[in-house]
Write a structure and sequence with these properties.
The complex is a heterodimer of chains A (about 200) and B (about 625). Chain A has about 200 residues and is of the alpha/beta class. In chain A, about 40% of the residues lie in helices and about 20% in strands. A 6-stranded mixed beta sheet of chain A has the order 2-3-1-4-5-6, sandwiched between helices. In chain A, helix 1 packs across helix 6, helix 1 packs across helix 7 and helix 5 packs across helix 8. The longest helix of chain A has 15 residues. The two termini of chain A are about 25 Å apart. With about 625 residues, chain B is α/β, with parallel strands linked by helices. In chain B, about 35% of the residues lie in helices and about 15% in strands. Chain B is built from 24 helices and 22 strands. In chain B, the strands form 6 sheets. Chain B has a 7-stranded mixed beta sheet with strand order 3-2-4-5-7-6-12, with helices on both faces. A 5-stranded mixed beta sheet of chain B has the order 9-11-10-13-14, with helices on both faces. In chain B, strand 17, helix 21 and strand 18 form a beta-alpha-beta unit. The longest helix of chain B is centred in the middle third of the chain and has 24 residues. Classes of the chains: A alpha/beta (about 200), B alpha/beta (about 625). The interface between A and B is large, with 61 and 60 residues.
């Protein structure tokens, strides 16, 4: 099978690393060769958090510029920041709800309007799936489930060699018990939004 | 139960590199482990700590967070000399701290298996430099293993313990961030019974390194190196794969980039690869045979051209004419890696698959099918998102008080921890930083060499790590500065590990708490004050007095890290809000503290109640008293 490179980007606290880890576990469970890589460090301090899931034959743990097949952004400005990972054939999935950094609050930089960011993405890559993922997380009654929403959207929009039921099984067994139902609901809402 | 403690083998699990190292140590029967945490090594000790805490009946090993890496290594050396299997972990710069014991521990050796992890950080994801610790193997004469990924890391830990037991010498395991922080499938083997106690057999002619003893011990080390060279020649980790008339020599994570590049370039019958998993001592004969069997060799290694230079020397010795390519000598990337990935093999920054593929294609005249990068020249610039002190972080309040008093004129030596983020505007209270503890010692230099006020900042864990000696020096030599210890009760930066100053009861550890103030008074500091930084006015008064004091003064700014407090002492402070009818838009709350819970909407400062933890710093600096707690009925 050919290699599929998926890059996740978000802001510290959005659950990006959990999403890539769960996807990696589902891949393993589905019998796929998988490598997951994470950049930790400043995650708790509101910085940018990046991770990657590489499915298929490749063994390298990182994705070079221009080589991501899918870019999953948990925040619209972060989709722009990591767009260099994509190429014109890439799929970009992005949450459109802004989470402005403090550089915007103190007037150091303007925050690009999300609609314009999405239009820019559409101009550059083959397919863009953009929606208010945070709104769906709230609809699932779990504001912290944006990561599950984005996973759901990924499964709907990309052709992954992992059955949805395997992914759900991993969510069920690996996330906190009191959040399992809302996490699954969030996954479904994300799936529907991108289907 | 945690899967890492599963006694049986056979199954595959997706493990982080650092978890795989722990599993390897457990499978090897590790009995004793010490560390000082530091990215990217931290999950090794953190996993050992949490396993021990959660499953005291299942876990047999002793574990401690030591006060620094030197202490960790010396403590481990004692256990290994006594005769139990020992692991000691640190990040790359930690090995500088531990270098003193390391160099002579290499002479005396061990009486049981001992593995030392050095976790390097090419591209400086979370470090002050990107030094190449492969040099430590050459400097100390100790063997070094370099895994390509988590699965190999687990195997190499066991292999390292075996070599160590066989030759009674410590073994270095060198990883890089991309090995520590990668997850892949790891196949488990059975756990080994743990020997937790030994009887130390005295042998002063081996263990007491007076010159007459050490002269012999140096010869011992050299003899061991000869044995290690033979082991390296036979090692399954120094292996040749593939076939062809061109060669690549590589090690560590780069082995993956090379394998992927060969597949991508369709060069499986053209390029063979020598991977040096045991990278010191080098298997010189194996390398010479490899060099002699190919027309051209490319060395793929991050950071220093260590293998490349070794290959040139071996080629010279064996009279081999094969062309050897590697780093672009003397060439420096025009931009930092956070602006642009490196375009050629230089001594700076980590490599990536695209770079390795292109360098191999160029070296061997192959065609690389590459995806065209997007032209993003017309992109609306994304606003910067540097990491920031958290909402409710007490460091922000301490910095605010000091900056209000001393502005930008004073010199602010800083140290290593979350508070280094005080470098950024609007706080701008970090002027000099080189290593752990440098805030204290460099302050003496600044205060002697200038007539400027000097106020240095250090965290509590960093102070215990290497601030104490500097403070003793400052008192003894009559320096003149104020040291602010930002005491948030934990090692926040690396993930809230305990340290000697932590409230051991609150976290349920049986270790002993060492309160800061009596310690500092005991060091001879004449002016010591403990402040509560969220009480802005009284804090400013105490800081003003300390700064006015002639000599060394210390302020202990005591307030728990809010992320840590959430776990150990949850509080019910109400979030605050800006009362818009009172607000006259001075914007002090926004411009002076840059709290991530605050934002501006249509010119109005606002507070995100979900992020605000009610520290009340902004409420105290608002000139209109327009920031008030959210009333209970408004919080839903």
């Amino acid at each position: 099978m050919s290699t599929q490179r998926i890059v996740f980007v978000g802001v510290g606290g959005q659950g990006n690393l959990l999403a890539s880890n769960l996807l990696g576990q589902a891949a393993l469970e589905a019998g796929q060769h998988v490598v997951v890589s994470e950049i930790h460090g400043m995650a708790q301090r509101g910085g940018v958090v990046e991770s990657a899931v590489i499915l298929g034959e490749a063994t390298s743990p990182i994705v070079s510029n221009g080589e991501a097949d899918v870019l999953v952004a948990f925040e619209p400005v972060e989709a722009l920041r990591l767009l260099s990972k994509a190429n014109q054939d890439s799929l970009v999935i992005t949450n459109t709800r802004p989470l402005p950094p403090f550089t915007v609050a103190i007037g150091m930089a303007p925050y690009p309007e999300p609609g314009k960011s999405v239009a820019y993405l559409q101009k550059k890559v083959r397919k863009v799936v953009a929606f208010d993922g945070q709104g769906l997380a709230e609809k699932a009654l779990n504001p912290l489930s944006l990561n599950m929403v984005m996973l759901g959207a990924l499964f709907a929009a990309a052709k992954l060699p992992i059955p949805v039921k395997t992914m759900k099984k991993v969510i069920r067994s690996q996330t906190k018990k009191r959040f399992v139902e809302s996490n699954l609901k969030a996954f479904d809402l994300g799936y529907q939004a991108a289907a | 139960m945690d899967v890492l403690l599963s006694p049986s083998g056979g199954k595959q699990h997706l493990l982080l590199g650092n978890e795989a190292i722990v599993r390897g140590a457990l499978e090897a029967g590790v009995a004793f482990a010490t560390c000082y945490p530091g990215t990217p090594s931290s999950e090794v000790p953190d996993t050992l700590y949490s396993l021990r805490k959660s499953y005291p009946d299942k876990v047999k090993y002793y574990f401690e967070y030591s006060t620094n890496e030197k202490v960790a290594l010396e403590c481990a050396a004692g256990a290994a000399a006594a005769g139990i299997k020992t692991l000691c972990t640190m990040k790359h710069v930690g090995m500088n701290v531990a270098a003193d014991p390391l160099m002579t521990l290499a002479y005396v050796g061990t009486n049981a298996g001992m593995l030392i992890l050095t976790a390097d950080d090419p591209s400086l994801f979370s470090s002050q430099n990107e030094q190449d610790n492969r040099y430590y193997a050459r400097l100390s004469g100790l063997p070094m293993l370099e895994p390509a990924g988590p699965a190999q890391a687990k195997e190499m830990v066991k292999y390292g313990f075996e070599i160590s037991e066989q030759l009674k010498t410590p073994v270095l395991l060198r990883t890089t961030t991309r090995v520590n922080h990668t997850r892949e499938a790891v196949t488990f083997a059975k756990l080994t019974p743990v020997k937790t106690k030994a009887k130390f057999v005295k042998a002063p002619m081996q263990y007491v390194t007076v010159p007459a003893v050490s002269r012999n011990l140096h010869l011992r080390l050299l003899r061991i190196q000869n044995q290690l060279r033979e082991i390296s020649e036979q090692s399954p980790y120094n292996a040749i794969s593939g076939r062809g008339s061109w060669g690549v020599v590589t090690s560590g994570v780069c082995a993956n980039y090379v394998q992927d590049a060969i597949a991508d370039l369709g060069a499986k019958s053209k390029i063979k690869v020598l991977t040096l998993g045991m990278s010191w001592p080098l298997p010189e004969k194996k390398i010479a045979r490899f060099l002699g069997s190919v027309k051209k060799v490319l060395v793929v290694e991050e950071l220093e051209p260590i293998l490349e230079e070794a290959l040139r020397s071996i080629a010279q010795e064996y009279g081999i004419k094969t062309a050897i390519a590697g780093k672009m000598k003397g060439q420096v990337p025009a931009k930092s890696v956070d602006l642009e990935p490196p375009a050629f093999f230089s001594r700076a920054f980590e490599y990536n698959p695209r770079l390795v593929r292109q360098a191999m294609a160029k070296c061997f005249g192959l065609k690389a099918a590459v995806k065209t990068e997007l032209d993003l020249g017309d992109m609306p610039a994304p606003p910067g998102r540097p990491p920031n002190l958290c909402a409710g972080c007490p460091h922000r309040a301490t910095y605010y008080a000091v900056k209000q008093l001393l502005g930008d004129d004073a010199i602010y030596p800083s140290d290593i921890g979350c508070y280094t983020l005080g470098l950024l505007p609007p706080i701008k209270a970090a002027d000099f930083l080189i290593c752990m503890g440098s805030s204290v010692s460099s302050a003496g230099g600044f205060s002697r060499a200038t007539d400027q006020k000097v106020v240095s900042f250090i965290g509590d864990s960093t102070f215990f790590h290497s601030g104490i000696t500097g403070l003793v020096n400052a008192v003894h030599n009559n320096h003149n500065f104020t040291l602010v210890i930002l005491d948030n009760g934990t090692t926040a930066m690396t993930g809230h590990q305990p340290h000697p100053g932590v409230n051991t009861q609150a976290i349920g550890d049986s270790t002993t708490h060492i309160p800061l103030e009596p310690l500092i008074r005991g060091l001879g500091v004449q002016h010591v004050a403990t402040i509560k930084p969220f009480k802005v006015r009284s804090s400013m008064k105490a800081i003003e007095e300390a700064v006015a004091f002639q000599g060394v003064s210390v302020i202990i700014s005591q307030e728990l890290c809010p992320l840590f407090a959430r776990r150990v002492a949850p509080r019910t402070r109400k979030p605050f809000q800006v009362v818009e009818s009172k607000c006259k838009h001075h914007m002090d709350c926004i411009n002076k503290v840059a709290c991530p819970a605050m934002y501006v909407e249509n010119g109005q400062a606002k507070i995100n109640a979900l992020q605000c933890i009610g520290c009340a710093l902004c409420a105290q600096i608002c000139p209109e008293n327009a920031i008030l707690p959210v009333r209970a009925e408004e919080v839903s």
